[in-house]
Amino acid sequence: MTNPVIGTPWKKLDAPVSEETLEAVDKYWRAANYLSIGQIYLRSNPLMREPFTREDVKHRLVGHWGTTPGLNFLLGHLNRLIADHQQNTVFIMGPGHGGPAGTSQSYLDGTYSEYFPNITKDEAGLQKFFRQFSYPGGIPSHFAPETPGSIHEGGELGYALSHAYGAVMNNPSLFVPAVVGDGEAETGALATSWQSNKLVNPRTDGIVLPILHLNGYKIANPTILSRISDEELHEFFHGMGYEPHEFVAGFDDESHMSIHRRFADLLESVFDDICEIKALAQTDDMTRPFYPMIIFRTPKGWTCPKFIDGKKTEGSWRAHQVPLASARDTEAHFQVLKGWLESYKPAELFDDKGAVRPEVTSFMPKGDLRIGENPNANGGRLLKPLDLPDIHDYEIDVKSHGHGWGATEATRVLGYYTRDVLAKNPTDFRIFGPDETASNRLAAAYEVTNKQWDAEYLSELTDEHMAHTGQVIEQLSENQMEGFLEGYLLTGRHGIWSTYESFVHVIDSMINQHAKWLEATVREIPWRKPIAGLNVLVTSHVWRQDHNGFSHQDPGFVDILLNKSFNNDHVVNIYFPSDANMLLAVGERAYKSTNCINAIFAGKQPAATYQSVDEAKAELEKGAARWDWASNAKDAEDADVVIATAGDIPTQEALAADDMLQKMGIKVQFVNVVDLLKLQDVEENDQAISDEEFTELFSKDKPVLFAFHAYPGSIYRLIHGRPNHDNFTVHGYKEQGSTTTPFDMVRVNDMDRWCLAASALELVDAKKYAGQIDEWTKFRTEAFQFAVDNGYDHPAYTDFVWPDANRAGQKNISATAATAGDNE
């Protein structure tokens, strides 16, 4: 399963690395360090050939030096390994502020100039390269999407290993050295991601080499792992399933060539162990190996001035960011900077035209083997459309039985569809979930695959659907699931992960970072090919948390996504399918999508189905639609009130209210919204429905009662510039709830049908319908007392069926007998 464009991997060397090669690696390291410092400090005179003055230093010094020299050292040696072994490799830079090292590496392997032709390989190009870094109109300071070879920006710390392990899944030829900064290692997400080695199989997956970069300090404090004994450090990582190899350098006067020799020998030994793991994995021996890792201990700011103004700099927190913050302002600091740059002997590294001398890069890989050009680091180059089944094969038949028929678990139906997507795409699609795949009704996947698990096994009576290989990954960490999926997508594959709605907030910032990656790609980086959409099934949602209670009720993830929806980059989609057939239509669209995040809010409890698949697809195409069968007004202008919904339970309750109103002779136009962002003002979203279409749905001036899944303010925020927005009244979650019955859950948030119907009458004519409003209001109290007295809901709530439905067919057609596990 080797990608033919990226070599034949996993082969050992027959001889030690030559001295000539190590001399070239040292030149690479010096050149990369010089390029890194130049990016932080210099705006002109990049090689100091003209009289070098303080005017050549940037006015604003932005960037981080502390972690960069260690990264440059590692990149030099990894480039050597890639070239010698012809090894398919993606590099993950965990330290968030190692950006200068990443761009320097890409400049040296040639890919930077290929993707950015204005950065020429001469002194003029070098000046542009330096000036653009953290500069107005330039590039960010991280290993950002603008940098060839990057799939992990590191803007938020904690996800280096999650991305790395996601990248190697179903990617057996891929080697991913993942550098973990010792500050990053203190984050909760990173701490749990060491367990990822139990969820991969060296036969079918690639290999991650964690490299813990211990340079001792964060911004202003020492790091925990750098201040514990070597014995404790080794025991910790061995307990995590790794064989740690420690490498210490830079703390004495050892020559650079001696350091390079020691590290090259260590890296070869580690890679030999990896090759043996890969070879053994091809046999029948499925014993989980202890994977090697490297503890790389160097001074912070390695090779910078040891002291500045009499204060220790190299090897201290003072080297974290810009060690010479006054290099432009004071002559003394400028002279220190000049000496620091000269210490790398740039004349030996760059020729008379300012180009990098060939001997500096002679040892490096070529073509697609280059870190900056590996197709796995531009996953859209490898992306293939999924072979998708026809969603009509999974359709709930409302054509025969009527709108509002049945009691189907929507996510279970999506699970049947996704099962067959897995079957048709066994190496390009995965399901991820934090111990909730079955609970969220996606268990049909286990008919065609297993949960991948490489830790200990017990009896098959207890360990169901678990195997060394499988396309389902579960670990009780939302961070891990998100990170795995991102790594999987960024290297050219597809997938979905499901989570409980209240706990999707755990990955708010991760979604934010991925959206920013996509925004930058869409706006400014045409050479990055589109990757598959990131699909999040948000279920076990707020309206049916009557069994878990208040702690499990929070629909606010919508608002995180809305923050990414106002710039016409179209990197987020927010879907509220009303039923199983609509969820099928949304699932099909999501599995075809690219360069976006698809948040799909869908319940897992039995509910009616309202539309056929074809009706659902037609509505999804528009984003919102009038439901003719639920409307008795000719159009919006003929209606007394427009009732709109977004979300499955709000739709259920609003339809029941609609039925009550129509029986009173109230003219209703019923509108369902599935694609929430289609409501957004067209000035903010050029893919939203037009004002004319908005008016057709919601009228020019009639009252609109909107029953919404999440917080009401989200709708007001979306429609603020739309016609008739002042006449919208939105009911949504009001931060009320407990462990209670389904009716009481909607009641306490004013989402029940009697409250909605009364609210609609108030909008139409509160005085005229005061008696009916009072009657329904009183019934709400009576129905609650019924639940208190009996422990279950009033039949007036549980027995409602939309009049079109075949009442004789009311049963759960999707095997929904609940178990304790289902109700978690």
TrEMBL record:
Protein keywords: Lyase, Thiamine pyrophosphate
The keyword Lyase belongs to this UniProt entry's keyword annotation: yes
Top EC class, one word: lyase
GO terms, biological process: carbohydrate metabolic process
The protein's name in its UniProt record: Xylulose-5-phosphate/fructose-6-phosphate phosphoketolase
Native species: Bifidobacterium actinocoloniiforme DSM 22766
Cofactors: thiamine diphosphate
Domain Xylulose 5-phosphate/Fructose 6-phosphate phosphoketolase C-terminal positions: 604-802
InterPro entries for the chain: THDP-binding (IPR029061), Transketo_C/PFOR_II (IPR009014), Xul5P/Fru6P_PKetolase (IPR005593), Xul5P/Fru6P_PKetolase_C (IPR018969), Xul5P/Fru6P_PKetolase_CS (IPR019790), Xul5P/Fru6P_PKetolase_N (IPR018970), Xul5P/Fru6P_PKetolase_ThDP_BS (IPR019789)
Similarity field: Belongs to the XFP family.
EC numbers: 4.1.2.22, 4.1.2.9
PROSITE patterns registered for this protein in UniProt: PHOSPHOKETOLASE_1, PHOSPHOKETOLASE_2
